[in-house]
Amino acid sequence: MGMKVLVTGGCGYIGSHTSVALLQAGFAVVLFDNLSNSTSAVLGPIARLGGPKVTLVQGDVRQPDDLAQVFADHRFDAVIHFAGLKAVSESVQVPLNYYEHNVSGTLQLLRAMDVAGVRRLVFSSSATVYAEDAACPLNESAALDATNPYGRSKLMCEQLLCDVQAADPRWQVAVLRYFNPVGAHPSGEMGELPIGVPQNLMPMITQATKGLRPHLSIFGDDYPTPDGTAVRDYIHVQDLAAGHVAALAYMAHQDKGLTVNLGTGRGVSVKEMIDTFERVNAVQVPYRWAARRAGDVAVRFADVGLAQQLMGWRAQLSLDEMCRDAWRWQTTGAGAP
Ligand code: NAD
Ligand code: UFG
């Protein structure tokens, strides 16, 4: 194809897997990352797994000069924008950081793209933009609302992207609302590198099982679900990566943007996840029951019909594969801190 894509936050968890998928699909890739939550060492695995047409530019999306430089040095066909901060609890403590990286960073990026005449963008949004009481399965027209600065920063970005497209039809934006990304590259060479104590379920399971944490706390046993534990829509990061390639193909063929959920459409409880992890990997997860975590909803899973209808994309990988690949990364990859 010979197309070149700028991947902001490309050294991070989802960005690194997506970059491999892009390279395998024939794109050249420029990673643009300030390495605040990742390392340049991931460039090796990306090139080994995807191919050599990848370079890293160290820069910050909040800095107009950094962006101007990368657009001056390369001619891009599209941008995928992962760069940003993503921890809900941290966003409550330091909201300005979240608005600065996520909202201001996106604004600066859009300005630089506009000046360079590159107006095709894939944006990382989140299921967190849906109102807490919206009914599941959540479809893309469900009510939107956010309950914390992280979620609000994503919602603000979605709104400004909508305004930009309405004002100038040359813009094409694919807004991808991720549900719960988990797992790692099946090679064991790439995965998530959580800093400090993980907040999310899967890295907590792998670290507790490895003995790096005393135990996993299951937050809540009294939700109105079959086993009393909360239900989420976990999606393998490899499927998520393929969703980004599908979004670029959609915009190239249809000449317009879209907003879609990326999930599996299947709800999985915390207990089901633990049971599956133990069976697939023949291990025991040390866990204890704990009170509900503030801010958690009981059930959240996606309606994935629109992504399939518009992009011909649907998640392929099973919960077994998510558990197997996450554990391989924890035990054999660089995932073990
Ligand atoms: P990550 O932290 O692994 O990756 C983000 C990358 O962006 C990191 O490499 C970091 O160094 C870089 N970065 C941060 N601020 C930057 C800045 N100002 N300039 C340049 N680079 C910067 O996170 P991830 O899990 O790969 O998430 C990627 C995107 O997907 C984020 O926008 C996140 O909000 C969104 N998202 C993630 C999840 C999830 O559960 N992982 C769910 C929904 C949405
Ligand atoms: N959980 C535990 N123990 C843990 C960690 C999590 O029982 O140690 C439970 C949670 O209570 C929840 C489920 O596992 O019921 C999933 O929790 P995660 O933190 O992994 O994921 P969330 O669904 O809470 O949040 C994720 C992202 C957010 C994003 C949100 C959107 O982490 O960034 O999805 O739905 F906003």
Percent helix: 40-55%
Strand content: 15-25%
- Overall CATH class of the domain at 4-184 and 234-264 and 302-316: Alpha Beta
- CATH evolutionary superfamily of the domain at 4-184 and 234-264 and 302-316: NAD(P)-binding Rossmann-like Domain
Number of strands: 13
Stretches with pLDDT under 50, minimum 5 residues: none
Overall geometric form: globular
Q: What fold name goes in the CATH topology slot of the domain at 4-184 and 234-264 and 302-316?
A: Rossmann fold
Give the CA-CA distance, first to last residue.
38 Å
Biggest sheet features: 7 strands, parallel
Structural class per helix/strand content? alpha/beta
Would you give an account of this structure?
The chain has 11 helices and 13 strands. By secondary structure, the chain is of the alpha/beta class. Bound molecules: nicotinamide-adenine-dinucleotide and uridine-5'-diphosphate-4-deoxy-4-fluoro-alpha-D-galactose. The site of uridine-5'-diphosphate-4-deoxy-4-fluoro-alpha-D-galactose has 20 residues, from helix 7 and strand 8. Uridine-5'-diphosphate-4-deoxy-4-fluoro-alpha-D-galactose (UFG) binds at residues 86, 88, 126-128, 180, 199-201, 204, 216-219, 230, 232, 270, 293, 296, 300.
